[in-house]
Amino acid sequence: MRLITKIEVTAWVDIVKMNVNKDEVDHQRHTEINACMYTEKLTELY
Q1: Fewer beta carbons below 10 Å: N end or C end of the chain?
Q2: What is the Cα 29 distance to its own chain's centre?
Q3: How far is Cα 7 from Cα 42, in angstroms, rounded to an integer?
């Protein structure tokens, strides 16, 4: 298991802030799915 990089943490913080700013539940769910895919792509790079 590899360590999470600072870039990934920053990306997650930005995504969470975006979710907090949006009150539509559907949009939040969609953003969470995108966040998971984004993290998986970053993981594949290492």
Answers
A1: N
A2: 11
A3: 10
Instruction: Show the tokens assigned to 12.
Output: 């997650």
4-36: burial string, b at 16+ Cβ within 10 Å, e else: eeeeeeeeeeebeeebeeeeeeeeeeebeeebe
Reported pTM: 0.30
31 half-sphere exposure, CB direction, 13 A CA radius: 18
Q: If you compute the radius of gyration of the chain from its CA atoms, what whole number of angstroms results?
A: 12
pLDDT in tens, 1-46: 567 778 778 887 877 777 665 555 566 566 777 777 777 777 776 5
